[in-house]
Every structure is written in C-alpha cells, then in structure tokens.
C-alpha cells in the first residue's frame, strides 16, 4: 500500500501525522535507492529547525554496504550533523531503502531510531518498476505511520 | 577541568533540555561518571550493563570517533569538545544479526 498523495503544500508543524515533502526530493531519494540497489541506501533531508519542512537532500554513504543493513559512516555523520547545526537545521527526514521487503520499519530500525523529531521515510525497491514510499514516527519503540503528502515546488504557496 | 559536551535531542531529557553541558574527567569513562553525577541516568544510555560503549550511540572527541581513540579509555584534556550522536542505522536484517555485525 502506498499512502503517498498529491496535493498542494500543507505544512502543519510537528503535531500532525503527515510528512509533506517536495516531489523533486522524493525523486532524488528514489534515484539514490535505485542506484544503490540491491544494497540499502540511506540519507537525510535537512530543514530549518522547527519548520518540519524537508528542504535539503543529503545522500549518505551506507558504511555497511549491505543488502539488509545500513549504517551512516561515523565521520560523515559528524560532519553532516555539524553542518546542519551551523545552518540552524535539523534532520527532518531520515530515509533508507529496503531492497527485498516492504517499506515498513524492521525491529532493527525501531531499536536504532534515535532522532525523536525525524520522519523515518522508507522506500522499498523490491519491485523493479514501482516504489513503495511510506513514512513513520518512531518514538520509544512505538511506530506510528503517517501520510506522505508529495507536493510540487511550483504549487507551493 | 572543563570539557564541553554536546547532547543530542534524545538525551536532553537528562540535561533539563540543555544542548551543551560541561563535564570533567581525564578519560571518557571519568567524564561519563561526572556527567551521570550531574545528570542522573545518562550513563545508562551511553554504557551497557557489561561496561562497554552502547551500540546505539557514537561519541566523538573533537573530530575523532572515540572507537579509534581507545573508547572509554580515550584520554581527555581541558578544552576538549565531546559530541554525542545517536547512531543512524537499521535495515531489513534481524536485530541480533545487526548487533553482531556492528560488533559493539
């Protein structure tokens, strides 16, 4: 099931169960996941602190280079997090791909989820010609799925 | 001896919301003990019951990952800056296998 819907930009802040994300960023994330397939791909979309707007796509290396596991390289992780700090940004979206299973957080994903303010976006590339894109909040081991609202920059108000 | 510690969002419940706190110690383990005395419970989020660094966090001394500096034995000096980040990891692999792969 894909919950992504098209529509005009709706930014509700952190309280509502929806991820609003630009279609160009979604395309870039899907392209990254396809490029690294069958290994898992991972990355971040940074945005201004408190805005809940994913604005700057940062593809990260999967240091594990694995079909079933991903891990940020620890030095790249530090560099990118410092850069966000300097820009008054935060990780609005943390994404990774599952390459043979559905786009739903595994027990491993849930155990490691350490950014309480982030939307955890999963892309499944198991089907060669379509992607499943789903988004979740993961807080204290509890997974809550949310709607993905994909918008075009051209129609942003 | 003052050492600046940058605390990630997920651990700020221990520091009264503070993003940067100060600590003291001549090694990482001494610093963590000092932090725990001021911010009760934070040690348990950084160190496992077996006494090793927790697999869910990365700790850096200035620009270096402490795993390359002797982990808990890493030497610290006045003016060092410590950064704590929750590891970003996961994937379809089962949890036990992932933990073993990380070797932490």
TrEMBL record, chain A:
Matches recorded under InterPro entries: JAB_dom_prok (IPR028090), JAMM/MPN+_dom (IPR000555), MPN (IPR037518), VirAsm_ModProt (IPR051929)
Pfam families named among the record's database cross-references: Prok-JAB
Keyword Metal-binding: yes
CDD domains noted in UniProt: MPN_like (cd08070)
GO annotation (BP), single: proteolysis
SMART domains named among the record's database cross-references: JAB_MPN (SM00232)
Keywords assigned by UniProt, alphabetized: Hydrolase, Metal-binding, Metalloprotease, Protease, Zinc
Lineage: superkingdom: Bacteria
PROSITE patterns: MPN (PS50249)
Domain MPN: 19-142
One MF annotation (Gene Ontology) recorded for this entry: metalloexopeptidase activity
Record has Hydrolase as a keyword: yes
UniProt-recorded name of the protein: Peptidase
Organism ancestry: Bacteria, Bacillati, Actinomycetota, Actinomycetes, Micromonosporales
UniProtKB/TrEMBL annotation, chain B:
Keywords: Membrane, Transmembrane, Transmembrane helix
ATP-binding keyword on record: no
Keyword Transmembrane helix recorded: yes
Coiled coil: none
Annotated signal sequence range: none
Domain of life of the organism encoding this protein: Bacteria
Record field: transmembrane: 82-102
SUPFAM superfamilies according to UniProt: MoaD/ThiS
Protein name, per record: Molybdopterin synthase sulfur carrier subunit
Organism: Actinoplanes cyaneus
